[in-house]
Specification:
With 493 residues, the chain is an alpha/beta fold. It contains ten helices and 19 strands. Helix content is 25%, strand content 23%. Strand 8 and strand 9 (217-224) form a beta hairpin.
């Protein structure tokens, strides 16, 4: 039942003894969920693969350069949902095999689920993307130059699939328990690398598994801080990349459904495929597809090992979020908004809509990295499932901002001397287990510590050109604003 139904039900006039007994029964049921660690859990997936054919609209692949058209389908892509209810609070989480979704699409998904008034309640909905670089453009940035890469009607198809996946997960939910494990992905071999300076890597994989009372697996959910881009920039096959074989491995091994999220992938945390499988010593295939599939199975093996040492995950579920206005400084994003390639609402400093053609006349320059006339509305969230705390971050978070491991002293050539260090995510968490879900509820690009921002020459580390992250970031104020909101959220101040 939804929250309103629960309230009116408990407030119904009943004889005193009956009402008291009813309240005791409801309290006992809720307490059982918290004390024993039993939940209602469901999982479902819906295919969101666009048609790749000569008689269909072109599918522009997201990531890397513009105008990379898919020529063939390698594996289907999905919206995969998990629903968990603890007796009081219902949480729905959807992971899409996409480069990202803007917040407006997430809001529409939430609104549609709200209209369904499902019982038991869905009190919070998180929609994230794996950030595959072999999936269709859903942001508009990777079509032919000057044109959106989003296929007509495709975002509506994705939204409908997300709603359907949650409905199915909710419908099929059954009594189950959770367990959680972690592993260092780089323990046996460097499987995640950092392609920029300074090199800071978050290499923690987290895996959560729900099992029903008879011991059957409902869902195995993996979070990994790494770009799904083994296939590389020359690939023209539509694919979810390594999450495809990672999920296949886990579903074959345990049964049930497997779901993947990406963590703090900023700073360009990317796959490093070893020459040989660290578990079997067999050489990896030389072709891109073969390496991608092998890499996914290696990660699946690591997740399996983490589950061998998993602990029960008990306790109540809750979620909270903060809305944040992010200044849109990036001149390329501003141009994309002006010509209709980047289609999302632009706001002023008070949060009111701005007509993009007028605002676009004010342009940022390399020497003035703050404009103050255009903003994006986004959000950052905190989810708690028993002893697990999750930060849901709306973009590609640099690992420094998760781990709290900043470069000190600051690189002398960085643009903002003595910029204050942002409050980081993990140091403020108090749960036994900690996790970041990136690309969560929005995609605002790279979220870079202001002390590392390096747009203007002379460039840091003696480089002759700026690093890649700044090209795909809203600007230097994104991290300070988001992380201030995070501190407010987790400390409730």
């Amino acid at each position: 039942m939804n929250r309103a139904t629960r309230t009116s039900f408990l407030n119904t006039t009943l004889p005193g003894a009956t009402a008291g007994a009813l309240l005791m029964l409801v309290s006992a049921v809720c307490a059982a969920a918290e004390d024993v660690g039993t939940y209602q859990v469901g999982a479902a997936s819906v295919v969101i693969t666009p048609k790749v054919a000569d008689d269909a609209p072109p599918v522009w692949l997201a990531g890397y350069g513009q105008g990379r058209q898919a020529e063939v389908l390698h594996d289907d892509i999905y919206a995969r949902a998990v629903f968990v209810h603890d007796g009081r609070f219902g949480l729905a989480m959807v992971s899409c095999d996409l480069i990202g979704l803007f917040r407006d699409d997430v809001v529409k998904i939430r609104e549609e689920l709200g209209r369904l008034q499902l019982s038991p309640s869905i009190d919070y909905v998180l929609v994230s993307s794996t950030h595959t670089h072999a999936g269709p453009d859903t942001l508009g940035l990777w079509g032919p130059v000057g044109r959106t890469g989003v296929m007509p009607g495709y975002l509506e198809q994705v939204r409908t699939a997300c709603v359907d996946a949650v409905r199915q997960a909710h419908r099929d939910a059954r009594r189950g328990t959770l367990r959680i494990g972690t592993a260092d992905v780089n323990h046996q071999a460097e499987l995640i690398g950092d392609s920029r300076l300074p090199k800071v890597i978050d290499s923690q994989l987290t895996v959560i598994q729900a099992r029903s009372d008879p011991g059957q697996t409902i869902v195995t959910w993996v979070n990994m801080p790494c770009h799904p881009e083994v296939l590389g920039s020359k690939n023209k096959q539509l694919s979810s990349d390594f999450p495809s074989t990672l999920r296949q491995y886990l579903e074959t091994r345990f049964g049930g459904l497997a779901v993947c999220n990406s963590g703090s992938v900023g700073g360009l945390l990317s796959p490093r495929e070893p020459k040989s499988n660290p578990f079997t010593n067999e050489p990896l295939p030389e072709d891109d597809i073969g390496r991608m599939m092998a890499y996914g199975r290696i990660i699946g093996r690591i997740a399996e090992g983490a589950l061998d040492k998993a602990e029960p995950l008990n306790g109540s579920i809750r979620a909270a979020s903060r809305a944040v206005l992010i200044p849109l400084w990036n001149p390329f994003y501003r141009l994309g908004g002006a010509i209709g390639v980047l289609q999302r609402p632009m706001l002023d400093a008070s949060g009111q809509p701005v007509k993009m053609p007028q605002a676009a006349t004010a342009t940022a320059t390399a020497s003035t990295p703050a404009v103050g006339d255009l903003y994006l509305k986004t959000e950052i969230s905190l989810i708690q499932i028993g002893t697990l705390q999750i930060a849901a971050v709306p973009g590609e978070l640099y690992p420094e901002l998760a781990l709290g491991r900043f470069q000190e002293p600051q690189e002398p050539a960085a643009d903002f001397p003595n910029a204050p260090l942002e409050p980081a995510i993990y140091p403020l968490m108090t749960g036994r287990f900690k996790m970041v879900i990136g690309l969560a509820n929005d995609e605002i690009g790279y979220i870079i510590p202001k002390s590392q921002w390096d747009w203007s020459a002379p460039y840091a580390y003696g480089r002759k050109e700026r690093q890649y992250g700044e090209f795909n970031s809203c600007g230097p104020e994104a991290a300070p604003r988001l992380m201030a909101a995070w501190r407010s959220l987790i400390t409730q101040k």
